[in-house]
Design a protein that fits this description.
Layout (H helix, E strand, L loop, with lengths): L12 E2 L15 H11 L6 E2 H7 L9 H6 L8 H13 L3 H12 L16 E2 L2 E3 L2 E5 L2 E4 L34 H9 L5 E4 L9 H8 L13 E6 L1 H4 L10 H13 L3 E7 L9 H11 L4 E8 L7 H13 L3 E7 L6 H4 L3 H12 L10 E6 L3 E11 L2 E11 L9 E4 L21 H13 L5 E2 L1
């Protein structure tokens, strides 16, 4: 049974060191609690009292989508990895030994997919900007160092290395000076996306220091839109209601909008249940009054939202609350993907069936989309071309902008779950492959650039 809070709660987080103190843990078997500890040593685990008390139906927790969204279970690791971690924890309490075993397992989980390390990190004045990614011409991603955590962690998170101490592949930058200098030299960039982690985890005085350079009238960048990637509306909406600094954030957001910069919350909602509490509805209303937009996105996840009815309901409710459905993603090929993934043909079928059930106002959403190495690739559908059954696809974004909106075809494969599983339908290579390989080759030549991180 869900509990709706009538008073503002104080944020309280639970992780491996104290999750057994959660009152509802008494409902779980000891083997389930032990699995949380074992998997939680490999993949990140944190949950808070809002998620526990207002989002999870504890009478049906095993099938509850939000429970599966935040609490690890045994199936989220491969059997051999779960057994290896369990054996290590049984044999020793030595933290270094446990950490070494976890690290070895993580290296098998594709920690940074889609060329994030190899191709996305830009450089300026001979220095790599390890807190920045620049994959698409118009948009730069910035990872503020103070935003490298979240109010709760998602079990599917494709940026899980940010939270488990894999510092050699962690994206973060402490200062904005080089970022601004880079943007001044790249006038093609119109959008900056603050991401993480979750930028909304930061204290206000820290966050505003990242935003204010773009409000300066002497600012020489071409930034026209600021995006904030956040799960805070789903995991801690009190951030914008009556937390101590709530009004300060809203005033800053209003200032950004009045400056003429488009401000967009890229809000992560994975299930319609996250949109039903009075707290999230009030937070959305308060944010919308500042003039910012709220665009919504989520991956398609087995055990959580692999149902067209859930997606249709979620999109309708988002529009009813003046949010804009934006993306349905395919679960990335990293972490616990084997647990969450669905075949591409099923992903397309779920999208199509959900899309058919909603009005045009909901059909701003695009998907199913794979954020793969060459770009964002949308599955348009299954068709027959010359008596051959094929996937029809297109780029929504590409490392080369000229790739965008060009239809291309892959052989039909009912088991494929990612772009790398597909083979070209009518040629030896996809049209972009030679150019993508040349990009890798160029990066190899430049790999002697010193790293700032």
């Amino acid at each position: 049974m869900l509990v709706i809070s009538e008073t503002k709660p104080t944020y309280k987080a639970y992780a491996l060191n104290n999750f057994r103190n959660i009152p509802q843990m008494g409902r779980l078997s000891e083997s389930e609690r032990r699995a949380i500890e074992i998997v939680g040593h490999v993949l990140p685990f944190k949950v808070n009292n809002y998620v526990i008390d207002e989002l999870i139906d504890w009478d049906n927790y095993r099938d509850d989508p939000i429970f599966n969204l935040v609490f690890p279970n045994e199936q989220m690791l491969r059997p051999e990895h779960f057994a290896e971690m369990a054996q290590t924890m049984k044999q020793t309490d030595d933290r270094n030994a446990i950490r070494d075993t976890a690290h070895g397992i993580r290296l098998h989980l594709n920690p940074h997919p889609a060329g994030q390390v190899e191709l996305n990190v830009p450089e300026i004045d001979g220095v790599k900007l390890m807190g920045v990614q620049h994959k698409y011409r118009e948009t730069v991603l910035f990872f503020p160092s103070s935003g490298q955590t979240c109010h709760s962690y998602c079990t599917f998170c494709f940026r899980w290395p940010q939270f488990v101490g894999m510092n050699e592949i962690k994206f973060a930058m402490r200062e904005t000076e080089l970022l601004v200098k880079y943007l001044e030299q790249h006038q093609e960039t119109t959008d900056i996306l603050f991401t993480g982690g979750d930028p909304m985890i930061m204290k206000f005085d820290v966050f505003r220091q990242y935003i204010e350079p773009f409000l300066d009238k002497n600012n020489k960048t071409n930034i026209q839109s600021i995006r904030i990637g956040t799960k805070s509306l789903g995991f801690w909406p009190y951030k914008f209601i009556d937390d101590e600094e709530a009004d300060k954030y809203l005033q800053l957001f209003e200032q950004v909008v009045k400056s003429g910069i488009n401000l967009a919350f890229m809000a992560h909602f994975n299930h319609p249940n996250e949109l039903r509490t009075p707290a999230v509805q009030k937070a959305i209303r308060r944010l919308r009054r500042t003039g910012l937009q709220i665009r919504t996105q989520s991956p398609l996840l087995r055990h959580i939202n692999d149902d067209p009815l859930a997606w249709a309901e979620m999109w309708r409710e988002q529009v009813n609350q003046n949010c804009i459905p934006y993306y349905m993603f395919v679960a990335r090929d990293t972490g616990a993907k084997h647990y969450f993934e669905v075949p591409l043909v099923r992903a397309w079928d779920i999208f199509r069936n959900a899309y058919q059930r909603v009005s045009g106002l909901c059909r701003t959403v695009r998907g199913p989309s794979m954020s793969a190495t060459p770009g964002k690739v949308q599955i348009l559908g299954v068709a027959e071309v010359g008596a051959q059954k094929v996937f029809t696809m297109r780029f929504l974004q590409g490392r080369n902008p000229d790739w965008v909106a060009r239809p291309f075809f892959a052989k039909y494969d009912e088991k494929a779950t990612w772009l790398d599983d597909l083979k070209p339908a009518f040629s030896d290579k996809f049209f972009y492959e030679d150019e993508l390989q040349a990009m890798y080759a160029q990066k190899v030549k430049d790999e002697q650039i010193p790293v700032l991180g």
